[in-house]
């Protein structure tokens, strides 16, 4: 398959604007600015059926179409580069290796919705990535691709970078907007949605890095080309973040609909140290886990993963082998979401802590059988009862881990200790 989003592997120093221009760079932006109307750009993205790569999978062109025409207020575009989902690491590589691809996508989005300002909100830990991206902005501004008169079109676009302070909740689009405005990142009630009242109370489009990186290719090569890749309802190319007990972890560009089994065993080389597959989280830590039997039957696109009982999210594929304590794995997930809860909503603020405490007790041998029902009860009462989906991000793993690996949870209660501690003293089986 031709590399698109990861073509930096084939083109050295693609982050330099001269190299980028020599390799089809800014051709999509030029076409959008000079050969298409804003409505035509939106229609092309709609027809491509590009769905948001940040986790929600909402159709990008449809989101753009919600921006009011002839708004009396300024319109903004926000590029979400917060990438805080555990198991996800695609955006950081794009920011480092193909910043102009992101800038070009931003320009097209701005032209489509008549926005003259874009804010790129970067995760707090992305110091190097911000430095590289800012350097690319300087180059783009010097060449006339960013500024008051983009490419001599008479249409101005200014792009500013803003670095957060390392809070997971800022990956949620309205939490991001609150932080951008200088406030605590409490997610907002919706409606109104950002398309009506976003940054500074103005109409705003929020798209993540990978979504915007797809846009120049759709404009250059057309919606028909893009929609021909992968499944009809969930087409295009996708960056898969493969981690965990895998021989070849890393970032891989593949067509949507790629079989999860092939991703693990062909692309990833199989389970590390030739252990047996036990479970896979397909979209980052906040989604239901697949057992080994379920995982080998799933194709990696939004609709197929949902139909199989989970969500593809950001495609942060986390692989766990037979020696993984699933109580311990869930406790680690619970600790993260308890720590990252913003505290605005009681079910999330309290529920994440209750779940973590129950799992800590189970792992330490202090749990009882009733705790298994309590975990499900708390998770059920959290889900759908908060302003944002952080509560769901723990509820969904709990409601899949506990029933799917119930025997393991029961064993923790009966033994009054984690049974996997006994295995830690055993020698590791040599790879064949």
Brief overview, please?
The chain contains 19 helices and eleven strands. With 432 residues, it is an alpha/beta fold.
Return the string of H and E elements. HHHHEHHEHEHEHHEEEHEEHEHEHHHHHH
Looking across the biggest beta sheet, what order are the strands in?
A: 6-5-11-8-9
Shape: globular
> What about the largest sheet?
5 strands, mixed
Assign a percent range to the helix content: 40-55%
Radius of gyration: 22 Å
Q: Report the structural category.
A: alpha/beta
Termini distance?
A: 31 Å
Total helical segments: 19
The percent range for strand residues is 5-15%
List low-confidence stretches.
425-432
Overall pLDDT: 96
Number of strands: 11
Describe the fold and architecture.
By secondary structure, the protein is of the alpha/beta class. The protein has helices spanning 17-21, 27-34, 38-48, 60-65, 90-97, 99-113, 127-142, 173-180, 209-221, 223-227, 260-267, 292-295, 302-307, 326-340, 346-364, 370-382, 390-404, 406-415, 420-424; strands at 76-81, 117-122, 158-163, 204-208, 237-244, 250-255, 258-259, 277-281, 290-291, 299-300, 316-321. The longest helix has 19 residues, at 346-364. It is globular. The two termini are 31 Å apart.
């Amino acid at each position: 398959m031709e590399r698109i989003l990861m073509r930096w592997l084939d083109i050295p120093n693609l982050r330099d604007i001269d190299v980028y221009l020599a390799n089809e760079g800014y051709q999509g932006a030029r076409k959008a600015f000079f050969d298409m109307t804003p409505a035509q750009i939106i229609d092309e993205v709609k027809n491509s059926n590009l769905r948001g790569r940040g986790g929600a999978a909402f159709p990008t062109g449809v989101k753009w179409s919600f921006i009011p025409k002839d708004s009396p207020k300024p319109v903004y575009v926000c590029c979400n580069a917060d990438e805080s989902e555990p198991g996800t690491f695609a955006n950081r590589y794009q920011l480092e290796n193909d910043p102009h691809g992101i800038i070009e996508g931003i320009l097209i989005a701005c032209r489509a919705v008549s926005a003259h300002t874009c804010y790129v909100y970067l995760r707090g830990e992305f110091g190097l990535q911000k430095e590289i991206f800012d350097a690319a902005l300087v180059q783009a501004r010097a060449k006339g691709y960013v500024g008051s008169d983009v490419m001599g079109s008479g249409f101005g676009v200014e792009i500013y970078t803003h670095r957060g302070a390392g809070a997971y909740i800022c990956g949620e689009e309205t939490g991001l907007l609150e932080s951008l405005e200088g406030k605590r990142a409490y997610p907002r009630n919706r409606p109104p949605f950002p398309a009506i009242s976003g940054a500074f109370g103005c109409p705003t489009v929020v798209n993540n890095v990978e979504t915007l990186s797809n846009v120049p290719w759709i404009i250059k090569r057309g919606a028909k080309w893009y929609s021909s890749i992968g499944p009809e309802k969930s087409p295009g190319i996708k960056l898969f973040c493969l981690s965990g007990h895998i021989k070849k972890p890393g970032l891989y560009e593949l067509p949507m609909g790629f079989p999860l089994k092939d991703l693990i065993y062909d692309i990833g080389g199989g389970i590390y140290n030739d252990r047996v597959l036990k479970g896979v989280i397909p979209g980052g830590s906040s989604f239901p886990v697949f057992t080994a039997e379920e995982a080998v039957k799933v194709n990696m696109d939004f609709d197929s993963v949902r139909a199989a009982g989970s969500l593809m999210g950001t495609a942060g594929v986390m692989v766990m082998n037979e020696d993984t304590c699933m109580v311990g794995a869930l406790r680690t997930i619970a600790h993260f979401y308890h720590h990252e809860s913003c505290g605005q909503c009681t079910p999330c603020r309290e529920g994440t802590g209750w779940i973590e405490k129950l799992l800590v007790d189970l792992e330490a041998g202090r749990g009882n059988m009733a705790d298994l029902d309590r975990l499900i009860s708390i998770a059920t009462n959290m889900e759908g009862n908060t302003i944002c989906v952080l509560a769901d991000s723990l509820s969904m793993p709990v409601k899949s881990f506990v029933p799917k690996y119930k025997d393991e949870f029961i064993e923790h209660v009966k033994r009054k200790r984690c049974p996997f501690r006994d295995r830690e003293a055993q020698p590791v089986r040599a790879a064949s």
